[in-house]
Amino acid sequence: MKSIAKLMVVAxxxxxxLVVAPVAARTYVGNADDGIGKFSIDPAxxxxxxxxxxxxxxxxxxxxxxxxxxxxxxxxxxYTDTTKGTYDKAVTISSPDDFELTSSDFxxxxxxxxxxxxxxxxxxxxxxxxxSLYVEIPKVTLxxxxxxxxxxxxxxxxxxxxxxxxFKLQNNLGGFRNVINGTPQMKIEVTLPSGGVTTNFGNxxxxxxxxxxxxxxxxxxxxxxxxxxxxxxxxKWYSSxxxxxxxxxxxxxxxxxxxxxxxxxxxxxxxxxxxRSKSFSVTIxxxxxxxxxxxxxxxxxxxxxxxxxxxxxxxxxxxxxxxxSASDWENLLKTVDNKxxxxxxxxxxxVETTAGGTRTVQFDTDTTTDDRQFTIRVQDLTERSNYxxxxxxxxxxxxxxxxxxxxxxxxxxxxxxxxxxxxxDYVYLFITGPNLPSDGAYPLNPSTDAVSGNKNTFIExxxxxxxxxxxxxxxxxxxxxxxxGGYTIYAVSAPVNKKDLTDAEYDTISIQLRSGFISAVTSGxxxxxxxxxxxxxxxxxxxxxxxVWIFGKNYYGEPSGLYVRSATVEDDGTFELKLDKxxxxxxxxGQYFVxxxxxxxxxxxxxxxxxxxxxxxxxxxxxxTEVKIVGLQAAAAANAxxxxxxxxxxxxxxxxxxxxxxxxxxxxxxxxxxxxGSTFTISGTTNLAVxxxxxxxxxxxxxxxxxxxxxxxxxxxxxxxxxxxxxGANVWSVEIDGSxxxxxxxxxxxxxxxxxxxxxxNFNVVEAVPTTPTVTPTGTVTTTTPPVETTVTPTGTxxxxxxxxxxxxxxxxxxxxxxxxx
Length: 822
Description:
This protein is mainly beta. About 10% of the residues lie in helices and about 40% in strands.
């Protein structure tokens, strides 16, 4: 707090001293022409980044109690809030009598900097009256303008040698305005087309231009004797004198560039040739702010065959003869041969150049513009011999058309037509074909003639900037009918029909239209209750969906009444409807009729269902009377729907299918006796669906306790298999490894996972009969036959061996057990 109190006392004394003593201005100490002197700076002066050799000693070194206010170690502080002592920049004063405002210290932080003495806290509120400086970044702006207006810049533009220019220098160095001795100065250096540099241009010296915040003009720069070409000018600081602090530090002005034209009047075009319906532009180069007469030279053509000047362009006044008085028109034509000027609107105009002596004018063409070379002329209004011309050739464009796909489509499909057009901004489509209007028909209503000049009888397609066009022709949205057959589509650069094609560019493509159709199959002619059934097919003609009607005994799509299903048609025309377990498990056994309906060309189902009333009805205007089908027998209900679809005013088509629902069953083929230890196959037939999973279990019928340590006689095998398509009924089979089976009776159980259907069968495993392998000798073997020893076998009944006896005993035991279970 002592430092704050001390600072406040010092500030009050300084403020009192400033009131008593008048404020001195910034003073330059030194020779303005030789070397670098020093500026003495007073409180509240403006100083600039880059300045050096600043002396604060004279006006700032007021002492109180032996403490110097502005001395080495004092600080310039830029506050964001003086009432809170919040600051964002603080710069320590290294030498108060020779100080430099470097960019590294001050950066881009400009504005008021308060001056705080040594040891003063800079983080506390700033007392009123604390001395300050205002810091700026020096900025110098150069422009080159027309002498006669002094506001029309020609920077980046072209001027003729008939003009006079002025250099306009502006700056923000107002802090030097009241300098007592030595105001900073700059020079303007002009780089010539040859590469040389001069400070004397157009007979005007560009040296020693005062820079003190005021706007300075270097005027009356005469271009008559200057070389044609590009000039660049820049204001630069001297390396010595009062402004030397800014030399070489990046504080020179911006460069300005201008072109001096060698011709008094010139015209150029942005294109040598242009396709009809496109635009081109010409640029006039003349004197600044001067009117010229621009026109297309007479080519002995009709009015609509000329390129035309686009209306309402800046600096362009479209004129016709009617806009001129007789005398004005006569005076105008004195400068040109009146036979070269066509008397049509849009072929000529008065054009005023900009300050830079230029003006760009756009010409438009269309499909009626003649394909030939045109001459565009610009004429001085006061000097007949001062003119220039440019030639532009207008050429015919071209139109192309293609259709995505093979060229064969189904009625109802969306056909993508596309191509290019360089002749116009729009392409017009019409169609020809069997029994259509001879000169072409409107593609969206083939019964309507395509009429030349009437855009509403064509499909109008905008051409993109890259000259491409594309149109999706949806044949499902055609108003009326379009029969199957061959058709030709015309793409034309103007709305003209077949007989007027000589007036436009065009291209054609041939396509084949076919009637949509539908085909379908069931996944099986017979389906077991609770099993899946798939209805799959193809619907050509690009419908979004098809409708599926199912009829059976007292069944019209669902047990409670009429219900029509839908199946989505994919991009390739395929569709699928799946009847799963929840659909089929409640169906009664018997025959079912399926009708799958296609909406055909108009994409609408002309026959639909009213499920609430159990009726079928036709679209408005079809003449079809509603028919109630709920209550009819299955075949009659299906026939009523088919009769409705066959009505003359209904374009829908359909396909018919049938399937039979049966109680699920699995049949096992006879197995017979199986030799012990062998591998064998168990097979059978079923009405279950292809792909259903079957679990097969084979277990021994014997289940007798055995002594401890003895091997169990019980054996079993479990396998799974899938139902396969068969010839007629579906089939299944599984191979069983019986290597662990002992002679016994075995039970086979087959169970379907999907339908909970089971079947069982029994078979016997018997002792295997040994077989003696036959050895086939290789090579030649010589053998000796021993004498034959004859054994006489007694006659009588053969006694079974032990093993056979056990087998028979076992079978007897099984039979006993079976009889007991029964």
